[in-house]
Amino acid sequence: MKPFLFLGVRPEDTPADDEYAAMLRCTGLDESTLRRVRLEAAPLGEVDLDAWSGIVLGGGPFCVSDPEDGKSAVQRRVEADLARLLDAVVPADFPFFGACYGIGTLGRHQGAVVDRAHPEPVGAVTVELTAAGRADPVMGAAPARFGAFVGHKEGLSAPPPHAVLLATSATAPVQAFRVGRHVYATQFHPELDADGLETRVEAYRYDGYFDPEEATEVVAAARTSGVRTVPAVLRAFVERHVHPGTDGGRRGPVPRDGSGVSQG
Predict the structure, then answer these.
(1) Is 154 within a domain?
(2) Cα atoms in the Cβ-side hemisphere of radius 13 Å centred on 127
(3) pLDDT computed for residue 127 by the predictor
(4) Which of 219, 249, 209, 215 is nearest to 59 (CA)?
(5) How many Cα neighbours within 13 Å face the side chain of 76?
(6) Beta bridge mates, 147
(7) Residue 61's CB: how many other CB atoms inside 10 A?
(8) Chain-centre distance of CA 55, in angstroms?
């Protein structure tokens, strides 16, 4: 089979490695079939879509709604790399799944307003699938109502006009949407369990998601929230889009663990 490409944006090694491990568990793939590229480490360069079965974008501390003059050079470069990638992905209806940061990235690319009107504190929420979500071959792998972990400063009030709303919650009206047939984004973290949340709480204790002195309480609330499993949407995404064939041929040197991505 052709591998999937995982794009990470977390600058901190511990949460970055933990996120990748969670993605491996939730997709059912291994390191040879879910190849990681850390976008914060080096320019993405050209992505040969023919080399991949699909692309997964993880979360991170960046917000696309940050004032431009407040963004670091790395954040601006990552956003430009992802915009160029989506310029190719969306017209091709190429399999793509973006989580948390991914919904802001895809939403802005597709014309939605991404702002601070619907933040959610770090913790558990109840996600509800829409009728379209229940019928969707990827999102429908989850129950009609399920618990998931979130933690974000920005969000969408409405999906892009041409997108299909797949899931919502009481505090964030857009928890998931789809563009075309194969391009997905979620506000909730489909890979995150309580252990992973604790890792991120420690890593981002001083990043403004919560009062640093309340970190222990945030973790305790997550562990008693009743969220015990992650929704099966990442595995469903992979199973739907596994593409037979070889790795597709390398097109040059790659940043950290990638293949089929040329260095910029």
Answers:
(1) yes
(2) 31
(3) 98
(4) 209
(5) 7
(6) 126
(7) 19
(8) 10
- Calpha distance 35→164 (Å, rounded): 29
Domain extent at residue 169: 4-241
DSSP 8-state secondary structure symbol assigned to residue 244: -
The mean per-residue pLDDT over the stretch 130-137 comes to: 98
- Structure confidence at residue 259 (pLDDT): 43
Is 256 inside any structural domain? no
The answer to whether residue 252 sits within a structural domain is: no
The separation between CA 21 and the C-alpha centre of its own chain, rounded to angstroms, equals 14
**Which amino acid is residue 201, in one-letter code?**
V
Mean pLDDT of 210-231: 95
**Which residue's structure tokens are 């910029």?**
264
pLDDT at 243: 75
Strand partners, 155: 115
Nearest to 52 by CA among 88, 96, 3, 92: 3
State the CATH number of the domain containing residue 236: 3.40.50.880
Across 100-108, average pLDDT = 97
**Both tokens of residue 170?**
């009481």
Q: Which two tokens stand for residue 129?
A: 């699938």
Q: How many distinct structural domains can be found in the chain?
A: 1
Name the token pair of 39: 């976008």
CB contact at 8 A, 230 and 190? yes
In the DSSP assignment, the letter for residue 189 is B
- pLDDT of 249 above 70: no
Nearest CA-CA partner of 128 in 176, 91, 90, 94: 176
What percent helix, strand, coil does the chain show, rounded to 5?
A: 35, 20, 45
pLDDT at 8: 98
Beta strands in the chain (DSSP E): 4-8, 34-38, 54-57, 96-99, 114-115, 120-129, 145-152, 155-156, 164-168, 176-179, 183-186
In the prediction, which pLDDT does 261 show?
61
